[in-house]
Amino acid sequence: MMKQDLLQDQVAVVTGASSGIGAAIARRMAHAGAAVAVNYSRDVEGAQAVVGAIKKLDGEAIAIQADVSDEAQVKRMFEQSLKAFGTVDILVNNAGIQQDCALVDMTVAQWQRVIDVNLTGQFLCSREAVREFLRQGLRLEVSLAAGKIICISSVHQVIAWAGHVNYTASKGGIDMLMQSMAQELAPKKIRVNSIAPGAIKTHINRAAWQTPEAAARLLKLIPYGRIGVPEDVAKAAVWLACDDSDYITGATLYVDGGMTLYPAFSSGG
Ligand code: NAD
Q1: What whole-number distance in Å separates Cα of residue 207 and Cα of residue 138?
Q2: Structural Rg of the chain based on CA atoms
Q3: 166 lines ligand 1 (CB under 6 A)
Q4: Does the C-beta of 204 come closer than 6 Å to ligand 1?
Q5: pLDDT at 204
Q6: Average pLDDT of the residues in 152-168
Q7: What is the pTM of this model?
Q8: Residues involved in catalysis
Q9: Whole-angstrom Cα distance, residue 43 to residue 35?
Q10: Distance (Å, rounded) from C-alpha 169 to C-alpha 129?
Q11: Contact partners, residue 187, CB within 8 Å, separation at least 6
Q12: Which of 63, 93, 128, 248 is deepest in the core (most CB within 10 A)?
């Protein structure tokens, strides 16, 4: 892969970056020239492996522990990142969990934890990032925008999903959080967008692709005929973070191989 300079001299905070999509985004952003704060909640080895891979390619990165649902820990994460890199230009709100359960059996704890991490976590991290974007103001030598936020949502912000009401509610919430932040912050030259991944091969959904039978069932939902990989999302994230997408704010980019085209309707309906 040829090194690019799309994000040269910028600083990115990527949450939940010790595995899966977040790890790929952290690596790809570093490859595009950004210094990266690799956030993790418990998986210190995973975070250190991502930092090691970035440094091996002469990139800059540090691992920072924080639970994104905890206000004090989020504030500390940004303080640590600012201390290491001086500022923040890009936030990728990627950390997310599932705690699947039928509605009638779902506990308040299962409901609340998913909302806390997936939705409140994006609010808390965005608020800290925006405070820094506003403090720093425009730095035209690095970017046309004073800051960029990328919210990792899901196709389940629009596709209902039985047995996952906590997850779908959190992702639907991200859509309006993202759009309202985009509207509020555009006059300050801050861009806010979402990526809604379809089925991407990671730890979170391994049951859906691990066996050939499960993979075949999943592929019926994907017109483009392949299950996604974290790099598919990471490439889109770099584009949304760089000036090539400067006129785009408040948008959701579906990276889903056509899953939201509802392929069941390709015959009949
Ligand atoms: P993953 O489980 O590998 O990644 C989730 C990451 O979030 C992990 O690194 C985990 O440690 C971290 N995390 C969890 N709770 C945290 C907390 N409280 N604070 C900080 N970090 C925390 O799975 P993934 O597929 O890479 O998921 C990344 C994002 O992509 C999630 O928001 C997920 O909802 C979204 N997504 C994934 C898919 C898919 O098919 N894999 C599809 C749509 C959306």
Answers
A1: 45
A2: 18
A3: no
A4: yes
A5: 87
A6: 98
A7: 0.98
A8: 167
A9: 20
A10: 24
A11: none
A12: 93
Determine the pLDDT at residue 159.
98
When pLDDT is averaged across residues 144-169 and rounded to a whole number, the result is 98
Whether the CB of 95 sits within 6 Å of ligand 1: yes
Q: Which residues of the chain form beta strands (DSSP E)?
A: 11-14, 35-40, 61-65, 90-93, 147-152, 190-197, 252-255
- Mean pLDDT calculated for residue range 147-152: 99
- Give the model's pLDDT for residue 269: 74
Return the pLDDT at 85: 98
State in Å: Cα 21 to ligand 1 middle: 7
The correct answer on CATH 3.40.50.10860 for the domain covering 11-267 is no
| Summary mean pLDDT of the chain | 97
Q: Which two tokens stand for residue 31?
A: 């490859």
Question: Contact, 251 vs 158, CB < 8 A?
Answer: no
CA dist 78 and 132 (Å) reads 9
Q: pLDDT at position 268, please? A: 77
pLDDT at 235: 98
Q: What is the DSSP string of 105-160?
A: G--HHHHHHHHIIIIIHHHHHHHHHHHHHHHH---TTT-SSSEEEEEE--GGGTS-
Which residue among 39, 97, 174 is best mutated to probe the pocket of ligand 1, counting the most ligand atoms within 8 A of its Cβ? 97
d(CA 202, ligand 1 centre) in Å: 9
In short, whether 232's Cβ falls inside 6 Å of ligand 1 is no
Q: Which residue in the block uniquely carries the two structure tokens 């309202």?
A: 180
- Among residues 24, 18, 23, which one has the least CA distance to residue 47? 18
Determine whether 148 is exposed, middle or buried from the number of CB atoms within 10 Å of its CB (0-12, 13-18, 19+): buried
